[in-house]
């Protein structure tokens, strides 16, 4: 009888099992959520692997240490064959037309916005993988000039100007009239009926003693 009771006490009940299982499931979901990379990080990793594969397939093969801004520009031009943006050539009748009425034989290229975002991700990935900021090939002046030329050329060809976003700055303007008003207000010392100076906030709240005395005597 005692053995049966002790055995029953040692065996967990059915109500205890789901609680432990649910706690483990919640903990597992939390760790999985923390381990899952963001969309930006996943895209950055894919871009980095694509660039490394490009270096390996280069003729002759290139190492990351020997990569320069010129090689980065070659990589961007290589990606144009996978682009989906119609860029009209100068001889096309739809050159500079934002909404061409008919198709044309102009090539498809990578949009400037896509290339600019790609360079930003690769610039960050280079330093995250041990590269020094001063030797970052994605941050060279040649790459910046190339991106600017692509932006201007595509803006003319597509008739869609790219406007650089300007940061809004909040400025406080103090006019001369405001300054003079404040100066005049501070220089005036309010007085009561008897000619005694009192604080401006106490003019109506506090009666003047001299005034009360004069009124009594009259």
Automatic annotation (TrEMBL):
Query: What's in the keyword line of the UniProt record?
Result: Developmental protein, DNA-binding, Nucleus, Transcription, Transcription regulation
Specify where it is mainly localized.
Answer: nucleus
Gene Ontology BP annotations: mRNA transcription; response to light stimulus
The record's subcellular locations are: Nucleus
Per UniProt, residues of the ALOG domain are 39-166
Locate the compositionally biased regions of type Low complexity. Answer: 1-25, 202-218
Q: Which superkingdom?
A: Eukaryota
Protein name listed in UniProt: ALOG domain-containing protein
- GO CC aspect terms: nucleus
Question: What is the source species?
Answer: Sphenostylis stenocarpa
Mind telling me which InterPro entries this protein's record contains? ALOG (IPR040222), ALOG_dom (IPR006936)
Asked if the Swiss-Prot or TrEMBL record annotates the protein with the keyword Nucleotide-binding, the reply is no
**What protein family is recorded?**
Belongs to the plant homeotic and developmental regulators ALOG protein family.
The GO molecular function terms of this record are:
DNA binding
Q: Where is this region: Disordered?
A: 1-41, 183-218
């Amino acid at each position: 009888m005692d053995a049966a009771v002790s055995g029953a006490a040692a065996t967990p009940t059915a109500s205890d099992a789901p609680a432990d299982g649910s706690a483990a499931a919640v903990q597992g979901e939390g760790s999985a959520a923390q381990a899952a990379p963001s969309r930006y990080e996943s895209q950055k990793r894919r871009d980095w692997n694509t660039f490394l594969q490009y270096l390996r397939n280069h003729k002759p093969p290139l190492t990351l240490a020997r990569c320069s801004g010129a090689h980065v520009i070659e990589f961007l031009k290589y990606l144009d064959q996978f682009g989906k943006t119609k860029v009209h050539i100068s001889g096309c009748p739809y050159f500079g037309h934002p909404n061409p009425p008919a198709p044309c034989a102009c090539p498809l290229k990578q949009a400037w916005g896509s290339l600019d975002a790609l360079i930003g991700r690769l610039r960050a990935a280079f330093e995250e993988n041990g590269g020094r900021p001063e030797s970052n090939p994605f941050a060279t002046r040649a790459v910046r000039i190339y991106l600017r030329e692509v932006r201007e050329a595509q803006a003319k060809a597509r008739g869609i100007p790219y406007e650089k976003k300007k940061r809004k700055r909040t400025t406080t303007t103090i006019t001369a009239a405001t300054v003079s008003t404040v100066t005049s207000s501070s220089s005036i010392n309010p007085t009561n009926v008897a000619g005694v100076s009192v604080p401006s906030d106490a003019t109506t709240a506090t009666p003047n003693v001299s005034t009360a005395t004069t009124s009594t005597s009259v």
